[in-house]
Structures are given as structure tokens and as C-alpha cells.
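Working notes for the structural subgroup meeting. M.R. asked for a predicted model of this chain before we commit to crystallization trials. I am recording the input and output together here so anyone reviewing the notebook later can reproduce the run.

Input as submitted:
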Amino acid sequence: MEHKLAKVNSMKKVIPQILQIVLNVGLTILAIVLSALLIIEIVEFIKILFSSGKKDYKLILANILIFFIYFEFITMIVKYFKEDYHFPLRYFMYIGITAMIRLIIVEHDHPMDTLIFSLVILVLIIGYYIINITPRERPTVKKVMSNTD
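Returned structure, recorded in C-alpha cell form:
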């Protein structure tokens, strides 16, 4: 019986380690792909800027925002590795706000959609504000109990 219990306990340690390795490899590959896309976006942006003819400013602005979305995803992956395998929620908020701004710029034909996108941005900003005013460290149960005694 103890042998089976020891085997189960060792599997409880090994399985999360294997999954963490798979996750780290996957995120590293994703970061490489996003970096390549970021470089492609820079090249496209330079082509648009130096092309002769009428400039489509909506296209230029949309490309800039796509660049920032790639940049934010890469930054989030870097932070994941620097902060001991933790994704900061605020980076998801940045990405969401940038993506919604891009949608408003590119898809602004329907006023109701634009209003909804604007409300989504407002909700994301309010959420970001709430995240920033709350303490990062949560009190442990022992600290709470010792403070009340």
C-alpha cells in the first residue's frame, strides 16, 4: 500500500514538471513566431511609409496597432519567464485595449458596434484601475488570524 502511495506522490511531482516544460517550449516557439511577425510588420510599415501615391492613414494606424499587439504579446511572454511562470493580468488588459482601439479604427462603419467597442474599452480600463488599486500580496490566513487576536 505504501509503495502505491509513494508512486502516486512521485507522479504528482513529475506530471506538473512535464507540463511546465511543454508549456515553456510552446511559449518559446510562440515568442519566436511573434517576433518574426513583428519584423514582417515593421517591413510592411516601412513599405507603406515610403511608397509613392496616396497614403491610407487608417491602414498605417492599423499596422501600428498590430505592431503593438505583437509587441505586447512578446512582452507578456518575457514577463512570464521573468516572474516565475506567472502571466500578469495587466498585460492581457493592455492587449485587449489595443485590440479594441484597432477595431474601432478599422471597423467603424456601424455606430452601434463602435459604441459597444468603446464600452468594452471602458470596462477594461476600469478593470485595470481596480487591479492597480488592490494590493499585490494577499494576506495569508495566519496573518489575518494573528491580527484579530
